[in-house]
Amino acid sequence: MYNKINIATIVFLLVIAGCKESWLEPDPLSFFEPGNTFTTPEGLQAALTTCERNMRYCWYGDGAPIITELLFSEVAVEGTTDKTGPAQDLNKLITPTANLNSADANKIGWFWYEGYKGIKYANTVISRVGTIAGLNEEVRDDMLGQAYFHRAWKYYHLCFQFSDIPYISKEITTPKLDFKSTRFEVILDQMIKDLEFSVEHVAAVKDAGHVTKGACQHLLAKLYLATGQFDKAIAMASNVIDGGTYSLMTDRFGADKSNAARNVVWDLHRPANKSVIANKEMIFNVISREDLENSRLSTELMRQAVPFYLCSNANKIYTPTGKTGLSNKLAAEEDLRKLYGRGIGRARNTWYHTHTIWDDEEDLRHIPGNWMTMGELVYNNPDLKKANDPYYGKPLQLRDQTGKVLTSDSIRNWYDWPHYKVYIEDPKKDASESYNGGASDMYVYRLAETYLIRAEAHFWKGDLGHAANDLNAVRTRAGAAPYVAGDIHIGTILDERARELYWEEFRHVEMVRISYLLALTGKPDENGKTYSLDNLSQENYWYNRIMGKTEFYNKGAKTVHGDEYTMSPFHILWPIPQGAIDSNSRGRINQNYGYDGYDLNVAPFENIEDAVAAQ
Amino acid sequence: MKKNSNSKTCALSLWKKLRIMRYTLFFMMVCLSQIFATNLYSQQTKLNLSMFNSRLGNVLDEIENQSEYYFLFNQQQIDLSRVVNVSVKDKNISDVLNAVFAGTNIHYVISDRQIVLTTGNNTGDFSVNQQKWKVSGKVTESGGQPLPGVTVVVKNTTIGTITDINGNYILEIPNGTEQIVFSFVGMRTVEESISGRNAIDIRMDEESFGIEEVVAIGYGTMKKSDLTGAIAQVKADKLEKENPGSVQDILRANIPGLNVGVSTNAKGGGSLEIRGKRSLKASNSPLIVMDGVIFFGELSEINPNDIEQIDVLKDASAAAVYGAKSASGVVLITTKRGKESKPTVRFDASVGLSTMGVNMDVYDGEGYLDWRQKVQESITANVKPGEFAKPTEENLTKYGITLDQWLAYRASSGDAEKDWLGRLGLFETEVENYFAGRTYDWYDASFQNGLRQDYNASISGKNGGMSYYWSLGYVDNEGIITGDQYNAYRSNLKLDAAINDWLSVGVNANFQDRAENGQAVDWAAQIINNSPYSLPLDENGNMVIYPMGTNTGGSINSMFDISYREKNNVWTTLNSVLYAKVKLPFNITYQVNYSPRWVFHNYQKHESSQNPYWKTLHNGLAERQSRKNFDWQIDNILMWSQTFNEKNKFEVTLLQNAEEKRQWEETMIGRDFSPTDALGYHYMKGANMLKSEISSNDYRSTGDALMGRIFYSYDDKYMITSSIRRDGYSAFGQSNPRATFPSVALGWVFSEESFFELPAMNYGKLRLSWGENGNRDIGMYDALSNMTTGSGKYPYVNNSGQAYEMSQLYVDRMANPNIKWETTTSYNAGLDFGFMNNRISGSLDVYKMETTDLLVDRKLPDFLGFNSVAANLGEVHNKGFELSLNTQNMDRDNFEWTTSFNFSLNRNKIVHLYGDYMDVLDDEGNVIGQKETDDISNKWFIGHDIGSIWEYEVIGVWQLGEEEEAGKYGVKPGDVRIRDVNGDYQFNNEDKVFLGSSSPKFRWTLRNEFTFFKNFDLSFMMYSYWGHKSTYDRPLNKNGFLDRTSSYIIGFWTPENPTNDYARLYSDDKNLSARFIREKSFIRLDNISFSYNVPEHLIRSYSIEGLRIYGSVRNVAVWAPDWDFWDVEQYQDMYDDNNWKSGPSPRIFTVGVNLTL
Question: Of A18, B152, B450, B920, which residue is most buried, by most CB within 10 angstroms?
Answer without folding.
Answer: B152
